Amino acid sequence: MRRMPDSPSESDKKCPQCERLLPVTDFHRNRRRADGLAYYGKACAVARSQASRRKRGIGPQKRSSVPVPAGLKWSPDCDQVKPLEDFPRTKKVSGRHSHCKPCHNARGKETAQRLYGGTREYHLRRRYGIGEKEFQELLAEQGGVCAACGDPDPEHVDHDHRTGWVRGILCFNCNGGLGQFRDNPTRLARAITYLRGTTWQRVLIHPGVYQMCSPTRGRPPSQRS
Known about the structure:
Elements: H1 8-11, E1 12-14, E2 21-23, E3 27-29, E4 37-41, H2 42-55, E5 72-75, E6 80-83, H3 101-116, H4 119-128, H5 132-141, E7 156-159, E8 166-170, H6 172-180, H7 185-198, E9 201-206, E10 209-213
Antiparallel strand pairs: 1-2, 3-4, 5-6, 7-8, 9-10
């Protein structure tokens, strides 16, 4: 049986920018769209991007001065061709960011410095919804010490993982300890009971003479104690 040629609706697509019927190969892929193709044709998409950059006062996009072999990628800021593994992963169609990891990190720090005055302010705002000012105010209310153990100069924000609300400022050990106990008061209470009930205690049996005794066993761990 003779095969009929593909209809235009299956092999072609109309670009709303130039209003021309173009082959589907003239469109970038876009998995988020129903047809799996970008809205504009490649040439029109490039022209729109360049016009947008000019309108925002951004210079033209850089291009690699040397051919980029398969399996490699060019990083614009450092102008180097590197393996794909040197680029952070992303959900974009390409699967990788445009800049290599060192350049990507440098850009992130520059943005945090420009918008928030530093990376610490950025992370505090992003993770806990507070800034350095609120952090210092909360620490002052605690007397400048860890809210749990009382050690001076704590640096870690503690928050409720269910609600996201900030509870206080803790030292590294207390913050990590609460996380290990999953913020569960029952687990913490059982741990306290365990420590009080099974920990070996030094008992004074004679002036200057101590013996290690267990509350549950009632005898020292060894005859030398």
